[in-house]
Amino acid sequence: MPREWKKLRVGDVVMVEKDNFFPSDLLMLSSSYPDGICYVETMNLDGETNLKLKKCLERTVELDEDGEFAKFQGVVKCEDPNPELYTFVGNLEYAGEIMSIGPQQILLRDSKLRNTQFVYGVVIFSGHDTKVMQNSTAPPSKRSSIERKMDYVIYFLFTVLLLIASVGSIDFGIRTHSDMPNWWYLQPNNTTVFYDPKQPEKAALLHLVTALILYGYLIPISLYVSIEVVKVLQTTFINQDRQMYHEETDKPANARTSNLNEELGQVDTILSDKTGTLTCNMMEFLKCSIAGTPYGHGITEVEKATARRLGKDVNGFESHLSKNDEMMNGGAGIEMTVGPHVKGFNFKDDRLMDGNWIHEPNSDVIQMFFRILAVCQTAIPEENEETGEISYEAESPDEGSFVVAAREFGFEFYKRTQTSVIVRELDPISGKKVQREYKILNLLEFNSTRKRMSVILRNEDGQIFLFCKGADSVIFDRLGKQGRSYETTTRGHLAKYGDAGLRTLALAYRKLDESEYADWNTIFLKAKTTIGADRDAMLDSASELIERDLFFVGATAVEDKLQKGVPECIDRLAQAGLKIWVLTGDKLETAINIGFACSLLRQGMKQILISLDMPGVKSAEDYGDKETIAKASRESISQQMINGQQEVNEDTDEERAFALIIDGKALSYALEDGLKDKFLQLAISCASVICCRVSPKQKALVTKLVREGTGRTTLGIGDGANDVGMIQEADIGVGISGVEGMQAVMASDFAIAQFRFLERLLIVHGHWCYKRIATMICYFFYKNITFGLTLFYYEAYTSFSGQSAYNDWFMSLFNVIFTSLPVLALGVFEQDVSARVCLQFPALYQQGPKNMFFNWPRILGWMCNGFYSSLVIFFFATNILQYQAFRNDGKVAGLEILGATMYSCAIWTVNCQIALAISHFTWIQHVLIWGSILIWYVFLVVYGFLNPILSTTAYKVLFEAVAPAPIYWLAILLITVSSLLPYFFHISFQRTFNPMDHHIIQEIRYLQKDTNDPEMWAREQGKAVHRTSIGPTAMVEAKVRQLKDLLREPL
Fold first, then answer.
1. What secondary structure letter does DSSP report for 95?
2. Model-level pTM?
3. Smallest Cα–Cα separation from 272: which of 714, 853, 644, 878?
4. Which of 628, 625, 691 is nearest to 660 (CA)?
5. Which of 36, 85, 325, 1027 is placed for a possible disulfide with 56 were both Cys, Cβ 3.0 to 4.6 Å?
6. Which residues are catalytic, by number?
7. Residue 558 pairs with which residues in a beta bridge?
């Protein structure tokens, strides 16, 4: 009967139908397949879209109907709930037997049943005990580092406010007590508590309240509102950037929060998922080497990136590669016919297509090569009932590309039964398609230790063959003396394929005698039916006995299709000084291959591999004690990290680069308290870091370790539900709106459609937003200090009487109208350099991670500038107006004239200051800056004509008092110029004798050297990149050094 997920309890038996998610962690009991297998999609757990094969225990296979569970009783003893996705330890007691349970029998919540009509399972973990829930993390509240630092600046200003208010109040209390009785005109005997000489303490306390309100302009309350307005407008520009719009999916960039705009410009480390983030999660069969002859003509994304780095035309580079292929084939021309693109197949070479392979030398070897591709696999064919086309569901994308390639070559994998594989293959004699059935006798599965898989089959002639495919190093070690004919030449082809970023696999076969197979099969069946910890070791030993004396036929070269522009993006990010870590759920070999494909790894880079595949750990596992295994694992991991760190420290070659590669099991120990500092130190010392077979929880823990351990800004980027923890734990989370659903996007701070857009998001928008926000905040402090301290000086000038120098409306509108719009223009439109120059000079980005525009020296410098300006405004204004007649009738200036003059000087000074600070002017900046000054005078006119009861000291002060007086305008000119001189001299000196990077670029652009002197422009570009060990640039430089070393060697 149907039941809601939340009502499931441990021990319930559940039937899950095809294409449904598992509601809890289940122990698989049986399935619709007679042999008890099922196919599971784990995209929400590890980001992989390829199917995983699960298999129930043989003892429960027959439980395949509802009625058979009426009397079903069993006891499961297993590990406690934990977040480990790839391990499981337990036993099932059923029908008087105790059977071992492993990950192969566990169906995890949030994975989906595929290509299987139904499965039965018993709930072992439910609710928050399930592994996917154990991997979940609470969403954090994120604030940018600038905002956090701004809090400390506010605390500092608040302390200054308390200090000056307290000083003024103490002085006022003393004066009230000592001097007030002598001020007869204030009627000291008939006054209020505010000025009572008999109660100076109360008067001082009440004055403190007045002072805190009056000097409150030192605290820029409106800054928070202005920042929010600016950030919202900045996100609008990010969302509207056409350079980050993906036309194929109709998805623009999406800033889902405005809190972290400036944080984009301060990223130090990027932690990235692989599948669906760096790659398209799509393998394409590109090239192959058969019988020592290379086939296939094409160019990979890595080769395209290298060509662009060398300044070559990609089409010309492809022609160059084609000529090289001709030379490798003894000068024979290669014809190419471009047909419709087939998903998973990008092979171009007419020598093998359309049955032409039968005319090639060694056609029998080619036939065997194609046959191995078609048969040595575990894919499931699905026929489209409408079109009749065959599609495949494979355990891995590369295996899917192999069966597609076999089909395109004329060997179509058509049907799979429980015991056989049916292939429609081209008969070289008749030239027609024939259907052949291969009976599968045994399947020797792939694992990370074996690095190969094999099938043993019987063909229609009764002959027994072993077909094997695996890593080239493993296959070459198992070749017989007669099977090495093509080994030497193929090794050269494999090296070239590896340099091009292709994933290679070697293919071999062996013909078996009946008696040999029968003897071996007895051993294999015994190992297969063994229950206990030794089962896997016995299976591996049995496989070793038969996988020998192989005959080598060739190798495949598959491109793990990177997203467009990924190598170039990684190159640019590395040149900008960013570190890139890859955290993936893929196998070790897959992670390394994609590392080469996207240029995070390269030939000549020393790989430091940390894993538990060590003799000490294996011997402890054989002993079987859990504590012993854990202790041996910790000691092994610690020693490996010590050795790796020592190797890095002792290396004296500046050109050598190191890469750290660690798997999930080892990482679980490396993240423990005693080892995580060593792991982080080693990782920081390496040029690139790749963590494979990691769970979602481990992704979040690694991100937290980097964020807290380095104290630098981290960015997590991914596209699947398994990346949510990492995205939430990082300072900035970026979601890829790809094919794996919207979970990552919903948890992210920024969403983009392709990884390559990260380059523009950080190097352009991040750089701009950081400098805009940092300069804007510093300027805000400057203008508030400039204005606020003039109030304090006037208070001191008037014996801290509490009288304000300005009209109430003047003070209220200072931050709201007269100085607010220019600072918004600064925060939204300011550009030290253009977007194109940002990308051409990526090292400019380091101004953000180094925090060059919002450090304490710069903040205090702006504050000192405000302090100086306030002194000039007050003392110049009071001294100019104090000792001479101001009006035509000989009267001196009063409070209203002094206030209007000082206020006008403040408005002119702070608005002219922002004009000096701006690098990039548009008509908008001009209108807002000079318009703000104009608005002040318009307001003064309108407000001055109101009833004196409303306008008070501003009544007709412009027309009747200050405007007709030349000294007013001269005072504004003198005070404004004097206030701005220190900043002007500082920036002039800095640009002349100690220029920053953007100053030099601005000067070059102003002198038009980028067009008039291209060599100088290119030379400066070369300087403005961080020396990097990853990316196509580093790969090209490494090849150049290698060629130079070869030229230096004596002949």
1. T
2. 0.78
3. 714
4. 691
5. 36
6. 273
7. 285, 503
